[in-house]
Inverse folding.
């Protein structure tokens, strides 16, 4: 360990090295990097003198001077401030490359002492923290380890470029933050003052009046639009009233007309035997739809059409869950012929009455033509077979028994 006189000499020689280094920077002969070792003849001479003085005093260890601003700041303040404060100042002030170079220099200065140290590993950035944040912690931890081993006194780190040192200690960061915030506040005040001055040069009254005129014009256009809509509604109401007065029956029938029915998911199943228990014929319907579509089909609702008549099978209206299920079922309805139990069961699309009658008319007409019978269709959709009126689009089957006989005979 050094006595007081040796420490005073060492500090004097360090100051001399800093001055000589500053002169070398001014003449352009020194390196611009802040984390390189001082290899000039002056520092070597000082190092030799320190070694000699240490040998003369009987010390077995030599003290070496290394130039690095990061390490000098940490070495000086690590015992004068808490860990978090030193860590925060170093990571915020110094560049990441400076911190990396400082860590490498510290490891090179103590290769033997830090041989098995866990903080020597190379750091990479992660989602939790940055690389230089971890490297700063490694530097502080390694210095603590070297100090505990009484090895840190072998090397003294000095600063050559004082501009790369923080102007405050770690415990003074709160004052620094206040100063920065005050500077930001001053800048904002200056910006607001400039904006006020720029606005004062404008004619405020003309700007305000223009905005008021624009808003009034917009409101006037909206009011005119509403007035036009109201006038159109009144005109339509007057027209409807006149039509209602002239044709009360037509208006009443139109007003009582049922809303359109959604048939996009409906199918009609015929040929399923009647049963007083709905679960029985519903199970049959489920198996029929599964056979036609090739998979289980979800049914939303199913019910019989018409009143119960003994000996007759009423059609069943089935509402499926999706339009796609309806399409699969209708496309695969031919598969029912391949099953004996479903050979007399048929699946058709649920269509309006007019569409169904058109389909029946075409079917009856085709059958009559195929049998060579005389067929005629009037302009109002009345089908006559062999001189007998069989079917009409307005009333359906006119003479159902005779029609069936004429078609089948």
């Amino acid at each position: 360990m050094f006595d007081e006189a040796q420490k005073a000499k060492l500090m004097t020689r360090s100051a001399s090295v800093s001055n000589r280094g500053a002169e070398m920077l001014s003449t352009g002969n020194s390196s611009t990097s802040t984390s390189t070792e001082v290899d000039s003849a002056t520092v070597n001479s000082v190092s030799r003198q320190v070694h000699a003085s240490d040998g003369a005093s009987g010390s077995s260890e030599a003290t070496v001077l290394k130039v690095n601003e990061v390490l000098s700041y940490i070495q000086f303040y690590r015992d004068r401030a808490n860990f978090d404060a030193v860590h925060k100042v170093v990571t915020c002030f110094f560049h990441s490359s400076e911190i990396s170079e400082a860590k490498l220099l510290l490891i090179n200065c103590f290769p033997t002492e830090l041989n098995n140290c866990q903080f020597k590993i190379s750091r990479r950035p992660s989602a939790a923290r940055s690389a230089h944040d971890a490297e700063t912690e490694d530097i502080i931890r390694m210095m603590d380890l070297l100090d505990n081993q009484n090895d840190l006194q072998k090397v003294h780190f000095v600063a050559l470029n004082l501009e790369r040192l923080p102007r405050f200690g770690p415990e003074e960061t709160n004052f620094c933050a206040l100063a920065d915030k005050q500077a930001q506040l001053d800048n904002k005040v200056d910006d607001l003052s400039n904006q006020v001055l720029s606005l004062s040069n404008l004619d405020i009254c003309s700007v305000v009046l223009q905005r008021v005129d624009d808003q009034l014009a917009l409101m006037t256009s909206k009011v005119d639009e509403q007035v036009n809509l109201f006038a159109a509604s009144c005109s339509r109401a007057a027209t409807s009233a006149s039509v209602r007065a002239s044709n009360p029956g037509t208006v009443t029938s139109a007003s009582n007309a049922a809303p359109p029915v959604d048939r996009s998911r409906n199918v009609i199943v015929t040929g399923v035997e009647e049963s007083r228990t709905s679960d029985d014929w519903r199970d049959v319907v489920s198996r029929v739809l599964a056979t036609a579509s090739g998979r289980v089909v979800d049914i939303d609702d199913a019910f019989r059409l018409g009143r119960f008549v003994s000996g007759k099978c009423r059609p069943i209206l089935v509402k499926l869950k999706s339009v796609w299920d309806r399409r699969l079922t209708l496309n695969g309805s031919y598969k029912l012929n391949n099953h004996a139990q479903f050979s007399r069961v048929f699946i058709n699309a649920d269509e309006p009455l007019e569409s169904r009658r058109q389909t029946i008319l075409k079917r009856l007409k085709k059958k009559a033509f195929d049998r060579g019978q005389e067929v005629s269709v009037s302009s109002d959709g009345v089908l006559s077979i062999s001189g007998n009126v069989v079917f009409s689009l307005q009333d359906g089957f006119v003479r159902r028994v005779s029609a069936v006989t004429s078609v089948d005979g």
